[in-house]
Design a protein that fits this description.
The structure holds 2 protein chains of 2 kinds. Chain A is α/β, with parallel strands linked by helices. Chain A has a single domain (3-268), classed as Rossmann fold (3-Layer(aba) Sandwich). Chain A contains 13 helices and 8 strands. Chain A has helices at 16-29, 46-49, 60-64, 70-73, 99-112, 126-133, 146-161, 164-167, 184-188, 195-202, 214-222, 233-245, 262-267; strands spanning 3-8, 34-38, 75-76, 83-86, 115-119, 137-142, 174-182, 205-211. The radius of gyration of chain A is 18 Å and the shape is globular. Chain B has 2 domains: 21-107, Alpha-Beta Plaits; 137-241, 3 Solenoid (Pectate Lyase C-like). Chain B contains 6 helices and 15 strands. In chain B, the strands form 3 sheets. A 6-stranded mixed beta sheet of chain B has the order 5-7-9-11-14-15, with no helix packed on it. Chain B has a 5-stranded mixed beta sheet with strand order 6-8-10-12-13. The longest helix of chain B has 14 residues, at 32-45. Classes of the chains: A alpha/beta, B alpha/beta. The A-B interface holds A 150, 153-154, 156-158, 160-161, 172, 200-201, 203 and B 141-147, 160-161, 163-166, 179, 181. Bound molecules: adenosine-5'-diphosphate (ADP) and magnesium ion. Chain A: ATP binds at residues 11-18.
């Protein structure tokens, strides 16, 4: 049975797409057949981050409308075995994502994939609702600031009440917190919430803390998921998160301010 | 039964027994001149001590043989000092007659009061019996921002955190055995004896029977973040440590 995982947040620009791409890629790297599904109809940037935007012929909405088969629409990753992308439509309306249509596609994907990663749009409207409706697990992407934490909290309420599992009275969606764009220095200065503060407010399992990193922007500009940049702090943090997702007990890193060495202090260090 | 008969039975009023704190002026002597002086002295000590204060004039402790009392004059005297007579308490025939002439109610002598209050509700028409036991609503999962939980007719018990932006409502009490960061409104149908209990008070709003405090005030509370109970005294919300 496939695991349906939604990457969601409520708030926009917190790192959902970045995280979907990194985690999906990490799962495929570890040998699990994975598909990334972009629910952000109208914006479509998962394919950009994955570097496959030039190979999009058919998209998610085409499949829902029966204009293309799933096999026609799935884009195979060039770098990694077992990794596929189902792009969002740039031209269609968000309401094209009907419960019935999405349900059919998810069901079909479940037959051949181990992991279905649903990259949710921002907000709590139709697109976001459809992305989480069929989920077994949720990765709630949150930035260490009050408004993002509030929106995530709200989304957790919807996960617990408006999903298929909730409506059928099944075991609830497994919720995990992914704290992204974490900047320990700013936390120390009191400009951002600390990981303990966010954990206390949201009271869910912590999947990982991804540091604020130049590597993310660099990777997304090149169309390479940041997890493939093994040297980078963000890449390593995502890698740890994937291991935790697979049940490994990995200690959290990048939570504290890095003490800069003398040379680094004199000449300035890379992030 | 006809439609009209049914309408006739629809109660337009309700009788309620109530304990009123009321001033009783117990007259020890039939001496209005001295009474006048002594009342004036009392008012001089504490100006505004009496102002339209409702009063029961107790004449039942007057020693026998002090002669007949000018009730109207006594009432005027009291009124001049800010005391307004609602009724008298008396046992002498002549005093009762004087009160009747002034259309003033007469209460039985001291000691019989308890009986009146017992009698009042008994005189009320019998209401259908309310169910004695109303189950509480119990919530074990976190209540998130944007969610609202209402316990109709009873208590609400929450065993998980209540987030900012969440709202708890109950006709009865509210218990939160976790941090309370949202809004909690107990006694929403007007039950002034409802209370709120929580393990960590970080609420956005606390309300009992419509009397509330908002976060701006709550954050100044020394008990912010502490385990507290919240109750209503008069129309003041009292927050005390649990
Ligand atoms: N850990 C990070 N460090 C620095 N920038 C980041 C990080 N995560 C995301 N970003 C940047 O934040 C922006 C929004 O990210 P994105 O994944 O598109 O968010 P969402 O899908 O939630 O709208 C992008 O410009 C991305 O490069
Ligand atoms: Mg996105």
């Amino acid at each position: 049975m496939a695991k349906i995982i939604v990457v969601t947040s409520g708030k926009g620009g917190v790192g959902k797409t970045t995280s979907s791409a990194a985690i999906g890629t990490g799962l495929a790297l570890r040998g699990h057949k994975t598909v990334l599904v972009d629910f952000d109809v109208g914006l479509r940037n998962l394919d950009l981050i994955m570097g496959c935007e030039r190979r999009v012929v058919y998209d998610f909405v085409n499949v829902i409308n029966g204009e293309a088969t799933l096999n026609q629409a799935l884009i195979k990753d060039k770098r990694i075995e077992n990794l596929f992308v189902l792009a969002a439509s740039q031209t269609r309306d968000k309401d094209a994502l009907t419960k019935e249509g999405v349900g059919k596609v998810i069901e079909e994907l479940s037959k051949t994939f181990e992991y279905v990663i649903c990259d949710s749009p921002a907000g709590i409207e139709q697109g976001a609702h459809m992305a989480m409706y069929f989920a077994d697990e949720a990765i709630v992407v949150t930035n260490p600031e009050v408004s993002s934490v509030r929106d995530s909290d709200r989304m957790l309420g919807l996960l617990a009440s408006k999903s298929r599992r909730a409506e059928n009275g099944e075991e609830p969606i497994k919720e995990r917190l992914l704290l992204t764009r974490y900047n320990p220095e700013r936390v120390t200065k009191g400009e951002m919430l600390g990981v303990e503060d966010v954990g206390e407010i949201l009271a869910i399992n912590l999947l990982g803390v991804i540091p604020e990193s130049q590597a993310v922007l660099k990777a997304s500009n090149q169309g390479i998921p940041v997890i493939l940049d093994e040297e980078s702090d963000a890449g390593q943090a995502y890698s740890d998160a994937v291991d935790r997702l697979l049940g490994k007990d990995v200690p959290h890193r990048f939570l504290d301010v890095q003490k800069k060495g003398l040379l680094q202090r004199l000449f300035g260090g890379k992030e | 039964m006809s439609q009209a008969d049914l309408l006739d039975q629809d109660p337009v009023f309700q009788l309620k027994g109530s304990m009123l704190a009321i001033t009783v002026l117990e007259l020890a002597h039939n001496d209005l001149t001295r009474l006048d002086q002594q009342l004036a002295a009392k008012v001089a000590q504490a100006p505004g001590f009496f102002s339209n204060t409702p009063l029961v004039l107790a004449l039942d402790k007057l020693p026998s043989g002090e002669g007949s009392l000018e009730l109207a004059e006594l009432m005027t005297l009291c009124r001049n000092h800010g005391l307004r007579t609602l009724a008298i308490r008396a046992n002498r025939e002549e005093d009762i007659a004087a009160a009747a002439a002034l259309d003033l109610p007469v209460l039985p002598p001291s000691g019989a009061r308890e009986r009146i209050i017992e009698l009042a509700p008994a005189a009320a028409p019998e209401k259908p019996k309310e169910p004695e036991f109303r189950p509480s609503r119990v919530i074990t999962t976190p209540i998130r921002g944007g969610q609202q939980i209402y316990a109709a007719g009873g208590d609400l018990i929450v065993l998980a955190p209540v987030s900012a932006g969440a709202e708890l409502l109950a006709d009865g009490n509210i218990h939160v055995y976790a941090p309370l960061r949202g809004r909690a409104l107990a006694g929403v149908k007007g039950n002034v004896s409802a209370r709120i209990f929580c393990q960590q008070m970080g609420a956005e709003l606390l309300s009992i029977a419509g009397h509330y405090k908002v976060a701006e005030d709550l954050r100044r509370e020394p008990l912010w973040g502490e385990p507290v109970q919240v109750g209503l005294t008069g129309d003041v919300l009292n927050i005390t440590r649990l």
